Structures are given as structure tokens and as C-alpha cells.
Amino acid sequence: MKIILNQDVIHLGEEGDVVEVKDGYARNYLLPTKTAVIYSKANAALFKSKAAAIEKRKAEKRAASASIKERLDGVVLTITVPAGESGKLFGSVTSQMVQAELQKLGFEIERKKIEVATHAIKMTGTYSVVVHLYENDMSHVKLIVQSEAERILAEKKAAEEKAAAEAEAKAQAEAEAAAAAEAESAEAPAEETASEEASAPADAE
Predict the structure, then answer these.
(1) Which of 53 and 175 is assigned the larger pLDDT?
(2) What is the DSSP string of 4-21?
């Protein structure tokens, strides 16, 4: 069936596009949800009259997509899940879980736009999740899947590194303070000697 899209549909087309789809898909989903209308000369003329407005919305979507991509490309997600000693999860990590984590960071991404490797991750490790944005834009988000034991170990390591950094900074500050005090004490006798020489009476001629 030939239709005109009323809105963007991932993997199908964008608002205003004329596409061919299976009759069942059109009658059972696209038409009832007003996602599309049947192609006709009247509907084609209507969309042609709205072409400028549609193009303006597309430009806005492209700009928003570029902004989201720039922010997303630097994101690292960490999800902690129950797992066995071998790293096999008691369950799996799905696109819905990734969506929830992204939402916590302020990203409102539709679940169907999140592509998880093999659809469900079932082992701990580091993965790349593809987030489809607008048109051909997509972002690769780093995903770390860890067990509870790994999370505790990572937190302990981070705490130890923080303590070591603080101790090093404290030692450096104390060393600088000691050096400054030593320099100050060395300058004091020199100033006293100069003062005594200046106040001593001149030798008789």
C-alpha cells in the first residue's frame, strides 16, 4: 500500500515521505494511529502545501540531533546486575535498562532507538550500545556491565586511589610549607646583619 507519513518512523521514513508498506502494517498500525495517511492526489497536494513547515521541523530535528550526539558520544554507562563467578548474568541487560540509565542522565531516548548488542547482554564486560538519532545520525555509547562483587571492588579501588591522591597532595603541601619556612628563617639573619651594619658608628678618620 502506498502511504504518506505523518511523522517520522524509524527504519521507514520521515514526515512527508511517500513509501510503500504491506497492507497489514498500514491498516493495523500506521493508519489507525494516524502515523500515516493513504496516498492520494488530495493528500499529496496537502503535504506539498505544508512542505516549508515540514522542512523547518526537519532542520530543527537535525540541530537537536547533532546536539544530543555531541553529548552522548562522551557518555559511559555502568549497570550493576547479579552475576555468577564466571561473569554470566542472572538475567540480561536490555535496551529498556539502557534507556532508564540514559534517562537518569537527562536523555529522553525512545527504547526502539536503542540497539543493544545481540538484543540482550548476558555477560559482564564492556559493550558499545548504538543510539539512533535523527536521519543517519547515531551515537555509540560505552556500556560497562558489572557484577555486585565487581562494583564493590571498583569502589574500593577508587577510594584507595582517592586516599593516595589526597595523601600525596598533603605531603606536597607540607613540603612546600617547610621549604617556605626554611627560606624565611634564612632571610632573617641576613636582614639583622644588614641592620646592625647600618646602625654602627662610622670609624674616626
Answers:
(1) 53
(2) EESS-BTTTB-TT-EEE-
Mean pLDDT for 88-113 is 90
Q: Do domains 2-49 and 71-149 have the same CATH topology?
A: no
What is the CATH topology of the domain spanning 2-49? Answer: Ribosomal Protein L9; domain 1 (3.40.5)
**Cβ distance 89 to 121 under 8 Å?**
yes
* pLDDT recorded at residue 205: 45
What are φ and ψ of residue 127, in 5° steps?
A: -130, 165
Q: What is the pLDDT of residues 30-49, one digit of tens each?
A: 999 999 999 999 999 999 99
- Contact of 68 with 133, CB cutoff 8 Å: yes
Please tell me the CATH code under which domain 71-149 is placed: 3.10.430.100
Quick one: CA torsion of 181, 182, 185, 191, rounded to 10 degrees?
A: -110
**Residue 9 backbone phi and psi in degrees, to 5:** -130, 120
Q: Which residues pair with 18 in a beta bridge?
A: 4
Task: Return the amino acid letter for 18.
Answer: V
Each domain of the chain, given as residue ranges in start order, spans 2-49, 71-149
Claim: this prediction has a pTM higher than 0.70:
no
Residues pairing with 131 in the sheet: 114, 139
